[in-house]
Amino acid sequence: MIVHLIDGTYELFRQFYGRRRFTKGDDVRFGAVAGVLHSILEMLEQGATHVGVATDHVIESFRNDLWPGYKTGEGVEPALLAQFHPLEEALAAMGVAVWAMTELEADDALASAAHLAAGDERVEKVCIWTPDKDLAQCVRDDRVVQVDRKGKKIRNAAGVREKFGVEPGLIPDFLALVGDAADGYPGIPGIGAVTAARLLNQHGAIEAFPPDVLGDRRDLALRFKQLATLRTDAPLFRNVDELEWRGPTGAFAAYVDRLGDARLLERGLKAPVA
């Protein structure tokens, strides 16, 4: 059994801006939603059986209380933001397990789902479909891997070490030191990727750093580490069998009419059911 966990928020952004290049700025109302559904149907057609999608029902999370500059929904285009909730509804209608996050983020859901799925001995591999560097912390040997669809790479533990210079378990420490512009925290001034990797490989986690390494910046680094550390305790499902796709629900045909893409229904009905 291979479990596929998909970053629905990232896929929605990818579809929205990818389609805009072809429509010359004339956004189709639910074009990005339809694009995400087509990409998941393609996975099912190619043999995927157990699939879960995580989304940000709201962009803000508990991390906004920890750091004032943490990412928010400000600046997200209205035409894109208007497709967040319809995507969740469409996925549910298509019969795909979907986790719409509020207090936590989609990344936390992916980390939690990976943790739960990896705990099942029947699961041969867990594939996390996102290029987000945060998720590299979830990689475990060859069993839990990160799939970068855009970069066309599958990153196992060795791949994480090659890219970042540290073990997957030290990714939160690495990001705390170098910062993450996408998430809105700057890291520690004067520490770049090479220096961060050297310090972490020499001393281990930030908590183990000698006092003189970070000095009065230690508390700030630990706060950034808290931002970068994904939660793995979200109770998303009790059994991995809940992720098995059994075909579209009876509501899918009506939802396809709303999306205005009849080919979705055709593909959904033809896609192989496990």
Task: Chart the SSEs and their pairings.
Layout: E1 2-7, H1 8-23, H2 31-45, E2 50-56, H3 78-81, H4 84-93, E3 97-101, H5 106-118, E4 125-129, E5 144-148, E6 153-155, H6 157-164, H7 171-178, H8 193-203, H9 211-214, H10 218-228, H11 252-259, H12 262-270
Parallel strand pairs: 1-2, 1-4, 2-3, 4-5
Antiparallel strand pairs: 5-6
Helix/strand/pairing class, anyone? Answer: alpha/beta
Q: What's the β-strand tally?
A: 6
Query: What's the number of helices?
Result: 12
* Distance from first to last alpha carbon: 11 Å
State the helicity in percent bands.
40-55%
Major β-sheet annotation: 6 strands, mixed
Q: Report the order of strands and helices.
A: EHHEHHEHEEEHHHHHHH
What is Rg? Answer: 20 Å
Task: Provide a compact summary of the structure.
The chain contains twelve helices and six strands.
Task: Describe the protein's architecture and organization.
The structure is a single chain. The chain has helices at residues 8-23, 31-45, 78-81, 84-93, 106-118, 157-164, 171-178, 193-203, 211-214, 218-228, 252-259, 262-270, and strands at 2-7, 50-56, 97-101, 125-129, 144-148, 153-155. The radius of gyration is 20 Å and the shape is globular. Helix 1 packs across helix 2 (31-45), helix 7 (171-178) crosses helix 8 and helix 7 packs across helix 10 (218-228). It has twelve helices and six strands. The protein has a six-stranded mixed sheet with strand order 3-2-1-4-5-6, with helices on both faces. By secondary structure, the protein is α/β, with parallel strands linked by helices. A hairpin with a 4-residue loop joins strand 5 and strand 6.
